[in-house]
C-alpha cells in the first residue's frame, strides 16, 4: 500500500504537465470536426476569389443555389436514387460472391493458386478501361452499371476476406480442436466469428470502391445518376452543379462509412482496441 | 495419495520427431520414453529448443510423431481427444466469446446445453474466482485472469489429463506465484494427471511430484527427479530444505544443458 502513494503522485504530476502543454487535447472531437469543416470552407472561399481557380470553385452560395436548379430540372432526387441503387446492388452482389470465393481460396490451396493471380491481375485495371467491353455484351442501362460495380467490389472484398481467414490465429483452432471441435464446428464456431472483423473491413472497402467506380459504371449510357450527370454538366460548363454533385458523392461515402462503423461496433465490439 | 496403487495413464514409447528444414532435417525428439501415472503431476524443464513443446503437442494429438507411440489409457493416441485438455501459453481464448462463453465452448461440444451447461460453466468459473467477470470479454481481462479462464475452460471439458505448455510464462512474477498456488489447490482438490512444461526451475519444483529434465538438441529425457515435498504445498514450501536441495541439483543439471546448447 505504501508504494501506492508516490506512484499516484507521479501520475498526477504527469497529467498536470500534459494539460499545460497540449491545449489540443482540451478541444473535444466534435469541436475539431467543426474546425475542420470551417477551415475547408475558408479554403474553398479563397479558391473562389482567386481568378485562376474561381471558375472551378464557385462559392458556397452559388453551389447551394444549384440544389434548387437541379431540383427544378427534376433530376436531383432521381440522380441520387439511381446511383444509390447501382452502388448498393453492385456492392451486395460483389459481397455475396466474394464470401464463398474467399473461403474456398483460404480452405483449398489449388483453388487459391488458380484464382488469386486472376484477381490480383484484374484488380489493378481501372474499371473505366473495361466498361466498353461490358457494354458490348450487356448493352446499356442498369445492368452494365451493376456489373461494373460488382466486379470492382468483388475483387477488393474477396482478397480482403481471404487474407483475414488466412490470418486467423492457429492456436485458436488448436484450442477448439482439443476441446473436441470437428471440422464443421471449427468452421462455424471459430473461422466464421474470427473472420468477422475482416468481413467488416471488406464491407467498408467495398462501399468505398463502389462509389469510386460510379463514374465508370455510369459511363455505360446511363439515363440518370450522379456520375452520369457530372459528365453531362461538363458539356455545359455548369461548375456549381458539378461541384455540388461531387460533394454529394463524398457525403454519401461518409454516410456509408458511418453506417459500417455502427455495424462494426455492434458486431465486433469484442476486438482488442486498435486505433485507426 | 502416495499409498494408492496407480495405473500408467500416459505411456510414451521411443518417440522420435524430425522436422524438414532447409539444411536437412532437424531432430526435435530423439527417443523419448516416459510413463505418466494416473493423477500424477509431472513438470518438465529444459533449455529452449529441447523439444518440450513438441512432446506436449504430440501427447495432445496436435502433431504426429515421426516414429514411436503414445498411449493414453492403453489406447494409442491418434489425433486430439477430450480426455486430454490443453492450456496454452498464449491463453488462446476466443475473443468474441465472454468468459462464460469460453468456458462453455467444450461443454457445448459435448452436447450439454441450456441450464445444465450454465451451471457446469459457473462451477468452473467459481473455481478460478471469476464469478464477477462472467459476462466480460477477454479484452477486458488482465493476463492472469485470461489464463484463469483458459484453465477453467480446459477443466470444464472434463479431461483426465491436463497438458500445460508454459501457461504462466507470459505473466509477471506476482501473478505467476498466485496462479501456481491456485493450480496446486485445484489439483489437490480435483486430481487430474498433469503434464506441465516450464522453463522456471522453481515453478517446476513447487508444482511437480516429479521433475523431468530434458537435454538439449536432440531432445531426450536426461533425468527424472522425485520431489519429496509433501502436499499441500504453498509458497512457504520454497524455503524448505527439500526444495533448496532439489533446486540446486536441478538447476545445475539444466545449466549444463544450457552450456551444451551454447557450444
UniProtKB/TrEMBL annotation, chain A:
<feature type="transmembrane region" description="Helical">
    <location>
        <begin position="146"/>
        <end position="165"/>
    </location>
</feature>
<dbReference type="InterPro" id="IPR000515">
    <property type="entry name" value="MetI-like"/>
</dbReference>
<feature type="transmembrane region" description="Helical">
    <location>
        <begin position="84"/>
        <end position="109"/>
    </location>
</feature>
<feature type="domain" description="ABC transmembrane type-1">
    <location>
        <begin position="80"/>
        <end position="260"/>
    </location>
</feature>
<feature type="transmembrane region" description="Helical">
    <location>
        <begin position="237"/>
        <end position="256"/>
    </location>
</feature>
<protein>
    <submittedName>
        <fullName>Nitrate ABC transporter permease</fullName>
    </submittedName>
</protein>
<dbReference type="Pfam" id="PF00528">
    <property type="entry name" value="BPD_transp_1"/>
</dbReference>
<keyword id="KW-0812">Transmembrane</keyword>
<feature type="transmembrane region" description="Helical">
    <location>
        <begin position="186"/>
        <end position="217"/>
    </location>
</feature>
<keyword id="KW-1003">Cell membrane</keyword>
<keyword id="KW-0472">Membrane</keyword>
<comment type="similarity">
    <text>Belongs to the binding-protein-dependent transport system permease family.</text>
</comment>
<dbReference type="InterPro" id="IPR035906">
    <property type="entry name" value="MetI-like_sf"/>
</dbReference>
<keyword id="KW-1133">Transmembrane helix</keyword>
<feature type="transmembrane region" description="Helical">
    <location>
        <begin position="121"/>
        <end position="140"/>
    </location>
</feature>
<keyword id="KW-0813">Transport</keyword>
<feature type="transmembrane region" description="Helical">
    <location>
        <begin position="32"/>
        <end position="50"/>
    </location>
</feature>
UniProtKB/TrEMBL annotation, chain B:
<dbReference type="InterPro" id="IPR027417">
    <property type="entry name" value="P-loop_NTPase"/>
</dbReference>
<keyword id="KW-0547">Nucleotide-binding</keyword>
<dbReference type="InterPro" id="IPR017871">
    <property type="entry name" value="ABC_transporter-like_CS"/>
</dbReference>
<keyword id="KW-0067">ATP-binding</keyword>
<dbReference type="InterPro" id="IPR050166">
    <property type="entry name" value="ABC_transporter_ATP-bind"/>
</dbReference>
<dbReference type="Pfam" id="PF00005">
    <property type="entry name" value="ABC_tran"/>
</dbReference>
<keyword id="KW-1278">Translocase</keyword>
<dbReference type="GO" id="GO:0005524">
    <property type="term" value="F:ATP binding"/>
</dbReference>
<keyword id="KW-0813">Transport</keyword>
<protein>
    <submittedName>
        <fullName>ABC transporter ATP-binding protein</fullName>
    </submittedName>
</protein>
<dbReference type="InterPro" id="IPR003439">
    <property type="entry name" value="ABC_transporter-like_ATP-bd"/>
</dbReference>
<dbReference type="InterPro" id="IPR003593">
    <property type="entry name" value="AAA+_ATPase"/>
</dbReference>
<feature type="domain" description="ABC transporter">
    <location>
        <begin position="10"/>
        <end position="237"/>
    </location>
</feature>
Amino acid at each position: 500500500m505504501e508504494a501506492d502513494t508516490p506512484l499516484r503522485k507521479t501520475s498526477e504530476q504527469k497529467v498536470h504537465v500534459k494539460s499545460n502543454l497540449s491545449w489540443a487535447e482540451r478541444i473535444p472531437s466534435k469541436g475539431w470536426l467543426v474546425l475542420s469543416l470551417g477551415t475547408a470552407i475558408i479554403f474553398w472561399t479563397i479558391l473562389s476569389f482567386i481568378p485562376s481557380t474561381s471558375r472551378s470553385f464557385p462559392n458556397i452560395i452559388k453551389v447551394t443555389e444549384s440544389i434548387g436548379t437541379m431540383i427544378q430540372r427534376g433530376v436531383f432526387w432521381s440522380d441520387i436514387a439511381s446511383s444509390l441503387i447501382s452502388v448498393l446492388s453492385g456492392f451486395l452482389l460483389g459481397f455475396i460472391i466474394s464470401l464463398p470465393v474467399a473461403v474456398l481460396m483460404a480452405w483449398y490451396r489449388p483453388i487459391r493458386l488458380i484464382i488469386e493471380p486472376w484477381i490480383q491481375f484484374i484488380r489493378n485495371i481501372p474499371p473505366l478501361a473495361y466498361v466498353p467491353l461490358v457494354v458490348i455484351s450487356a448493352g446499356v442501362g442498369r445492368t452494365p452499371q451493376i456489373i461494373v460495380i460488382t466486379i470492382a467490389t468483388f475483387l477488393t472484398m474477396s482478397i480482403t476476406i481471404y487474407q483475414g481467414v488466412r490470418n486467423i490465429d492457429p492456436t485458436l483452432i488448436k484450442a477448439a480442436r482439443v476441446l473436441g471441435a470437428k471440422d464443421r464446428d471449427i468452421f462455424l464456431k471459430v473461422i466464421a466469428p474470427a473472420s468477422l472483423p475482416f468481413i467488416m473491413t471488406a464491407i467498408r472497402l467495398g462501399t468505398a470502391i463502389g462509389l469510386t467506380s460510379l463514374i465508370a459504371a455510369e459511363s455505360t449510357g446511363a439515363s440518370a445518376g450522379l456520375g452520369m450527370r457530372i459528365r453531362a454538366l461538363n458539356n455545359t460548363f455548369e461548375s456549381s452543379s458539378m461541384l455540388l454533385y461531387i460533394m454529394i458523392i463524398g457525403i454519401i461515402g461518409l454516410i456509408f462509412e458511418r453506417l459500417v462503423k455502427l455495424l462494426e461496433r455492434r458486431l465486433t465490439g469484442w476486438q482488442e482496441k486498435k486505433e485507426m | 495419495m502416495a499409498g494408492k496403487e496407480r495405473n500408467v495413464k500416459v505411456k510414451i514409447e521411443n518417440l522420435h520427431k524430425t522436422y524438414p528444414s532447409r539444411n536437412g532435417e532437424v531432430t526435435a525428439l530423439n527417443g523419448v520414453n516416459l510413463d505418466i501415472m494416473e493423477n500424477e503431476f509431472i513438470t518438465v524443464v529444459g533449455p529452449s529448443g529441447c523439444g518440450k513443446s513438441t512432446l506436449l503437442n504430440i501427447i495432445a494429438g496436435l502433431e504426429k510423431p515421426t516414429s514411436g507411440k503414445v498411449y493414453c489409457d492403453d489406447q494409442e493416441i491418434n489425433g486430439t481427444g477430450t480426455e486430454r485438455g490443453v492450456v496454452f501459453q498464449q491463453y488462446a481464448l476466443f475473443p468474441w466469446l465472454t468468459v462464460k462463453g469460453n468456458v462453455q465452448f467444450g461443454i457445448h461440444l459435448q452436447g450439454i446445453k441450456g441450464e445444465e451447461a450454465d451451471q457446469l460453466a459457473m462451477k468452473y468459473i467459481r473455481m478460478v474466482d471469476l464469478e464477477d467477470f462472467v459476462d466480460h470479454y477477454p479484452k477486458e481481462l488482465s493476463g492472469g485472469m485470461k489464463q484463469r479462464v483458459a484453465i477453467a475452460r480446459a477443466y470444464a471439458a472434463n479431461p483426465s489429463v491436463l497438458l500445460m505448455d508454459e501457461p504462466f510464462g507470459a505473466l509477471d512474477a506476482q501473478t505467476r506465484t498466485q496462479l501456481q498456488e491456485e493450480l496446486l489447490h485445484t489439483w489437490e482438490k480435483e486430481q487430474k494427471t498433469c503434464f506441465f512444461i516450464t522453463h522456471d526451475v522453481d515453478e517446476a519444483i513447487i508444482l511437480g511430484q516429479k521433475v523431468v529434465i530434458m537435454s538439449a538438441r536432440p531432445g531426450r529425457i536426461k533425468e527424472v527427479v522425485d520431489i519429496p515435498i509433501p502436499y499441500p504445498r504453498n509458497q512457504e514450501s520454497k524455503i524448505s530444505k527439500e526444495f533448496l536441495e532439489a533446486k540446486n541439483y536441478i538447476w545445475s543439471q539444466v545449466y549444463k544443458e544450457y552450456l551444451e546448447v551454447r557450444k
